[in-house]
């Protein structure tokens, strides 16, 4: 863990090192992924089944690629009523928030008589990748699938690997609750290839979303352009801005909730109170002795953790903007007064009783958020990822007479004669038919 | 040019070939681009100047990288008043349309007492790549720069190569009109590297937009993640749906306005009227004899042009949806009746007096549009490319009591103990302080 104070000489260079030291070291998977994608594209189900047998040790045929409705119902029946209720609380709140994102179409007629605007239209089909094994998070199924359903995507296919045939029943229950229409027991680059190019069994989709390992991320990169993808997720991070009004143990747990994800995760405390920082650091050390995922959390905190001491809370927000965190907690008495100064953060959690972990599950806003400082230019997953806009332009003879000549002038200036003639031929025809024009 | 009729046997397979035959054959520039980016990242201005001298035969120093205000004013003075007026008509209409795209922030408090929503925030800095030489289109400068300014981006840097020192004055005039704050005479992958990583002279930006050659496209691909990029543009295309109510020559010019861009461009006519199709084809052949860019347009029409004869206009729209064109013209009496059935198109042009060429310059909607059938999932450039969203969640003790337990249950189910404790520690503290809770 790095402890820095903005009053110290050398703060700037140490802070800049924090900004860059986690840039991803890409694993060299380009060629194997390209080979897998090519074979799925060429051989379809045959390749998909062979690769699944090879990587997941699961014999599978085109007929057993999809989970049946009965399998999904049986999995759901294994989940406790308490958990199903929690899943439902989460799903309802996520649905409600994303419904409020739904945009309106735009249409207006201007002074020149042109009618113009844009229509929002959902994608036809989306594909959702869900990692298998320990990283199979039912909450992520909800967060990826529900925005697609709310956007109006009619077909929502999901791929989840089942190594040795093992599947987390809560993942299937979450998929059913979220409205996923097809679930396939395939994973890795081969699943991405199947959703991008289609096979005899799996029809292609228009956009693929969801987290995955290095192979999945590289496969998404390679199919990008043929289909849409969401952002390539890097390791998760949180910045907690706190003062001494919070319990140090609670703040320590907020930091560790990030650190327990992944050794590359980054948890940063920013506080103007150096004594409070000491107490939080001590609480982190104490909690690390008892937490179940202590190995991961300890490594993350040791390598990537940071505690920054600032002159005041406003300087804390300035540093947070430079870090452009995925998650930003404002654990202070008046979080709104700080939040107005926030320019770069994926999601903000305001107030002492609103930790990120609430938002990870049941808050409503999406938990798929821009990592690796990309909150400078990127946003969390939303219904906009599952819709696109068609702009339109409409105008009659009068409007063309008013604005057409400017188009003709610019087209000639750019040396695009057919562009110019496409407009001027219409203007000529109008002139012929209206002698007084 | 391929002529197909939906009534013919074999239509489906011939049509499917149309859908796939233009998939990009990537030029092998990965390694040279990676080398250029690495040297700009490491050596900054030194590499940038050396590469500019090498590729553009232009001796340049850090002090002369940027165009001066005087150079820009002198260039603008070279442009005719008529053209400056046309540029201004275009700029005003583009500004007006993109202002109407500006979204509203969202904020609400729900039944559980949580306050949540999202704020739209502009990027700090955007970079605009503009190709040099013949492909230097002032209209594209307006279309890329104005949405950034309207979105509220305060810093807008532009890079344009000036091979042998040559610059199109209209490009500089357009940049000045659009509010570009810095213009650099650099191009290629080195310009993308400079904007992504920064040099001593060029500060880094958050997102890079604008068209370019294979090197520029590959450079954008490689810096993606470190900064945002717009989509990688493929060859341009149009689908014109027309009936015999239009002049065949006018429709031919609309097709050729697409074909004259690039030999890879694709122009497609879809009509239910076979005799009208014959007349359009004859008019295309006649115009190709006289147009200035006949070599390019002829090659495009011969290789990629298509004429599809359908049973009726509704079937024409169905085929257009499958083609998911960048541009869609509806040259019929009642275009709105067809437009409601359009699901996949970057931009639509409605009615006989509203050709694409009007929209390319002065319509108002953006002319940077999804190519290569990506209108299935992608949209044209917009102010959304220059803004991002921060979601927020806020709640007090009562709200946490209501929804917190569901978060705890799901966190434990996912094996994320610190997530659970981050919430349950707060719930425990509340229970201690409110004995009746």
Automatic annotation (TrEMBL), chains A, B:
GO cellular component terms given for this protein: cytosol
Residue positions binding Zn(2+): 258, 261, 360, 419
Catalysed reactions listed for this entry: L-histidinol + 2 NAD(+) + H2O = L-histidine + 2 NADH + 3 H(+)
UniProt keyword annotation of Oxidoreductase present: yes
Textual note on the cofactor: Binds 1 zinc ion per subunit.
Swiss-Prot/TrEMBL keywords: Amino-acid biosynthesis, Histidine biosynthesis, Metal-binding, NAD, Oxidoreductase, Zinc
GO biological process, one term: L-histidine biosynthetic process
One Gene Ontology molecular-function label: zinc ion binding
Entry's family note: Belongs to the histidinol dehydrogenase family.
Record protein name field: Histidinol dehydrogenase
Organism in which the protein naturally occurs: Acetobacter lovaniensis
Gene: hisD
């Amino acid at each position: 863990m790095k402890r820095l104070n903005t009053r110290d000489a050398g703060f700037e260079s140490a802070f800049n090192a924090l900004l860059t030291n986690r840039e991803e070291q890409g694993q060299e998977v380009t060629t194997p992924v390209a080979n897998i994608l090519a074979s799925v594209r060429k051989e379809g189900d045959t390749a998909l089944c062979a690769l699944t047998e090879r990587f997941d040790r699961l014999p599978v045929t085109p007929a057993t690629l999809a989970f049946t409705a009965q399998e999904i119902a049986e999995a759901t029946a294994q989940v406790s009523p308490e958990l199903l209720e929690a899943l439902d609380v989460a799903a309802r709140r996520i649905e409600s928030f994303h419904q409020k994102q739904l945009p309106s179409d735009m249409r207006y007629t201007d002074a020149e008589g042109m009618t113009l605007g844009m229509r929002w239209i959902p994608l036809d089909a989306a594909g959702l990748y869900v990692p298998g094994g320990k990283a199979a998070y039912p909450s992520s199924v909800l967060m990826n699938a529900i925005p697609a359903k709310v956007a109006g995507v009619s077909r929502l296919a999901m791929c989840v690997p089942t190594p040795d045939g093992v599947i987390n029943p809560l993942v299937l229950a979450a998929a059913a609750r979220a409205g996923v229409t097809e679930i396939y027991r395939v994973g890795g680059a081969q699943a991405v290839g199947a959703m991008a190019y289609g096979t005899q069994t799996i029809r292609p989709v228009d956009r693929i979303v969801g987290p995955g390992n290095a192979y999945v991320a590289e496969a998404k990169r390679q199919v990008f352009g043929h289909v849409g993808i969401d952002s390539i997720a890097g390791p998760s991070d949180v910045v907690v801005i706190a003062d001494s009004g919070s319990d140090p143990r609670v703040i320590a747990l907020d930091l560790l909730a990030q650190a327990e994800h992944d050794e590359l995760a980054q948890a940063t405390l920013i506080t103007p109170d150096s004594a409070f920082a000491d107490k939080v650091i001590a609480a982190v050390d104490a909690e690390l002795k008892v937490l179940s995922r202590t190995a991961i959390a300890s490594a993350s905190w040791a390598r990537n953790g940071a505690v920054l001491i600032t002159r005041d809370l406003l300087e804390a927000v300035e540093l947070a903007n430079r870090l452009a965190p995925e998650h930003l907690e404002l654990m202070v008495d008046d979080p709104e007064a700080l939040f107005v100064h926030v320019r770069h953060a994926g999601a903000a959690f305001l107030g002492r009783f609103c930790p990120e972990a609430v938002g990870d599950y049941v808050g409503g806003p999406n938990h798929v958020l821009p990592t690796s400082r990309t909150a400078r230019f990127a946003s969390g997953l939303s219904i906009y990822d599952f819709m696109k806009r068609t702009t339109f332009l409409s105008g009659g003879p009068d409007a063309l007479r008013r604005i057409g000549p400017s188009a003709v002038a610019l087209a000639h200036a750019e040396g695009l004669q057919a562009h110019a003639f496409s407009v001027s031929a219409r203007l000529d025809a109008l002139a012929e038919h209206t002698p007084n024009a």
